Amino acid sequence: xxxxxxxxxxxxxxxxxxxxxxxxxxxxxxxxxxxxxxxxxxxxxxxxxxxxxxxxxxxxxxxxxxxxxxxxxxxxxxxxxxxxxxxxxxxxxxxxxxxxxxxxxxxxxxxxxxxxxxxxxxxxxxxxxxxxxxxxxxxxxxxxxxxxxxxxxxxxxxxxxxxxxxxxxxxxxxxxxxxxxxxxxxxx
Length: 188
Fold this sequence. Notes:
1 helix
């Protein structure tokens, strides 16, 4: 009788673990535990730099003369295809004060564009990176490329007007096997 009760308890425990594991499903790892950005600086996109937006909207990360923020990737266990980026207002909505050339770009250690997403006036990514660098014909990067601390993130505000002091924040959203968002990082 004791052996029968022990078997039932063990089977119930195994069933509970299996069911609770299935309940989480995709996106069960919080993105905040796998990705962190930081060290924000602001400035202007320099004409002729490796990060300027090229005619094919893939060879660069910002339009010359536009106001930009640059963030370092502090730690990351994710790939390019696991995150979306957003600039939020103090009320929590997506920043809608961008221009036609507003974009997010990830730069490699040589300041060349690894990935770019032109967002337009609402500075929010709604899909995975539509373009990868270094060229449009033979991209070096893809969704599965690890997004490590060797990269930096450029946010192009889409105009030459500074957005400093507006209370804007940057967040990364998890997609695929990641969920949620990172803690907001204040953009100066």
